[in-house]
Amino acid sequence: MSNSIQIIIADDHSIMADGYEKVIHGNTDHTVVAKVGNGKLLLQVLNRTVPHLIILDLNMPEMDGLETAAFIKRRHPSIKILVISMYEDLGIKNKLLDMGIEGYISKTTDAAQLLDAIDGIMNGGVVYQIKSTQNSVPQQYSTNDSFRMKHKLSSREVEIIILIKEGKSSKEISKVLYLSEYTVETHRKNIFKKTNVKSMGELIKWAVDNQL
Predict the structure, then answer these.
(1) Angle between helices 181-195 and 200-209 (to 10 degrees)
(2) I need a labelling partner for 189 at 20 to 30 A (CA). Which of 17, 76, 124, 169 fits?
(3) What is the spatial distance between Cα 67 and Cα 86, in angstroms, rounded to a whole number?
């Protein structure tokens, strides 16, 4: 579309947010009016600025993308939302469609696909580019907070537990989740405390027992 639109980017990985902004400013006359790192900050910004579109990471601290998107749709139904996730999960896709979210694309999407998604949504379309569910977080843990609340785990910690169960090293996990190895190791230590395990073997058994 030719008319300029105002966009807010919500992603806790600054490199990703900066990349989206660069693509948008380099190829359109749209304006990124704000970038925030979590759902709570996004809601604070919306008290001052109401954009046309929000590009929303699914996995963020404080409030995850699903919770944030649901709140925004209740409070600001006119704002269009494009969810971006590293997971291609049919369960999440269906939940987002039920919530009236206009777009859902993978973080592996290239610049041209991102711009096409923005234009498609702003022209009144619904854009879902998720194709498979392979290697995605199980639906019950990506769409339901009850398990996390019971064990006092964050969404990120659940992701890391699942990846550990799959046999991935800290280095591999850091690449998958766009985190530093130090951050992954910090999460590991916190996970050990919260699950009351003392070894990787015990953690994997814990994950299996809890059907992760």
Answers:
(1) 60
(2) 17
(3) 17
Check if the beta carbon of residue 136 is closer than 8 Å to that of residue 87: yes
Query: Strand, helix or coil at 56?
Result: strand
pTM greater than the 0.70 cutoff: no
Say if CB 35 and CB 54 are below 8 A apart. Answer: no
Q: Which DSSP string do the residues of 93-159 spell out, in sequence order?
A: HHHHHHHT--EEEETT--HHHHHHHHHHHHTT--EE-----TTPPPHHHHS--HHHHHHT--HHHHH
Domains located in the chain, CATH noted: 6-128 (3.40.50.2300), 145-209 (1.10.10.10)
Please say whether the beta carbons of 9 and 32 come within 8 A: yes
Q: What is the pLDDT of residues 42-95, one digit of tens each?
A: 999 999 999 999 999 988 877 878 889 999 999 999 999 999 987 766 777 878
* Distance from C-alpha of 62 to C-alpha of 134, rounded to nearest angstrom: 27
- Residue 53 · residue 5 · CB < 8 Å: yes
Which residues touch 32 (CB under 8 Å, ≥6 apart)? 7, 8, 9, 20, 21, 24, 25
